[in-house]
């Protein structure tokens, strides 16, 4: 059975999606300030690795846990559900723009929009 990563198109598709996703995020007034002092090349590499793992394209994750990676954004910058939802909207808009079938978008949303993932990102 193919993984979601394979169904989405593998590395090339994830690379393109991450590039387009951050174009939307950096233009989104609701969340762009979270990235004002971010090394975006590094952020994109990290996001590509994260998505590759989350969608079944890698067997292990070498990055920091989501809770640790976002804790300062919650404590110091006020990251909330509003911002999480904005990022999720930007991701869905990216996948729609890339003409990803709705069934695959639904799978992506199920993973990245899960209560457990949201609670980790928002440190709850």
Features:
single chain; 124 residues; mainly alpha; 7 helices; globular
Name the beta content range: under 5%
What is the arithmetic mean of pLDDT?
A: 93
The helix-and-strand class reads mainly alpha
Rg over CA atoms: 14 Å
Main sheet overview: none
Helix content: 55-70%
Low-pLDDT ranges: none
Question: In words, what does this structure look like?
Answer:
With 124 residues, the chain is mostly helical. Helices cover 69% and strands 0% of the residues. The protein is built from seven helices and no strands. α2 (10-27) crosses α3 (40-54), α2 (10-27) packs across α5 (81-97) and α4 packs across α7. It is globular, with a radius of gyration of 14 Å. The termini are far apart. The mean pLDDT is 93.
């Amino acid at each position: 059975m193919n993984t979601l990563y394979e169904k989405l198109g593998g590395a090339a598709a994830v690379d393109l999606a991450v590039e387009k996703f951050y174009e939307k995020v950096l233009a989104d007034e609701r969340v762009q300030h979270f990235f004002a002092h971010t090394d975006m090349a590094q952020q994109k590499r990290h996001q590509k690795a994260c998505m590759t793992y989350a969608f079944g394209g890698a067997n292990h994750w070498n990055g920091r846990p989501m809770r640790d990676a976002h804790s300062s954004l919650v404590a110091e910058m006020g990251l909330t559900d509003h911002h999480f939802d904005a990022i999720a909207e930007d991701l869905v808009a990216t996948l729609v723009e890339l003409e990803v079938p709705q069934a695959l978008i639904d799978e992506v949303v199920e993973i990245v929009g899960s209560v457990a993932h949201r609670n980790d990102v928002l440190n709850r």
